[in-house]
């Protein structure tokens, strides 16, 4: 766990104070069951260098290790699923990059330790690619990236066997309050009606073909 303050100047300029390990664990224990679900998604809208996300991933990886350590292919697959469920937005690029590095190192340490000679660089490349798309530099309040473009998150789902499905969504559309917009006369932009939950839900702005989870970095949009 990193120090709570990097410098007084950063506190003054950005209000940057990192959450301590004790508080991180106390807060995550409130949703302990979800932290131990491999596919349960977590978003930290001000992730800093990753105190919360690192602990969430560590808990998920412990579950994957406990269940699949004797089957290296299953361990690899579900460890990739675990890391694909973790999202963060961070205002400062150096923090965002530290978070990406930290998350990758946690995953790779466990992956290498469990899979040993079966560990491969294709899986590592896929995980780096997923992290790059899940941990973004931007402002969660304006829902814009540091370059002024809308924040876009990728949803990764294991669909069949080793196949993973990627769908991209705009963050601002995901955060719309649509419960009062159930009239078909005025369909909210970027939304579609889901009769099962009686609500408008975001429409993906991009979809990708089913791809082996270790090849998501090579999938071509359609």
The gyration radius over C-alpha positions equals 18 Å
Distance between the termini: 41 Å
Q: Identify the quaternary structure here.
A: single chain
Q: How many distinct helices?
A: 8
| Sequence stretches where pLDDT stays below 50 over 5 or more residues | 178-184
Give the integer mean of the pLDDT values: 87
Q: Let me know the largest β-sheet.
A: 4 strands, mixed
How are the strands of the largest sheet arranged? Answer: 1-2-3-4
Summing up helix and strand content along with how strands pair, one would put the structural category as alpha+beta
Taken in chain order, the helices and strands follow as HHHEHHEHHEEEEHEEEE
Helix content: 40-55%
Percentage beta strand: 15-25%
Shape: globular
Number of beta strands = 10
Outline the structure in words.
27% of the residues are buried. About 3% of the residues have low confidence. Helix 6 packs antiparallel against helix 7. The longest helix has 23 residues. The strands form 3 sheets. Strands 1-2-3-4 form a 4-stranded mixed sheet. Strands 5, 6, 9 and 10 form a 4-stranded antiparallel sheet that branches. It is 41% helix and 20% strand. The chain is α+β, with helices and mostly antiparallel strands. It contains 8 helices and 10 strands. A hairpin with a 2-residue loop joins strand 5 and strand 6. The chain is globular, with a radius of gyration of 18 Å. It starts with 7 loop residues before the first helix and ends in a 10-residue tail after the last strand.
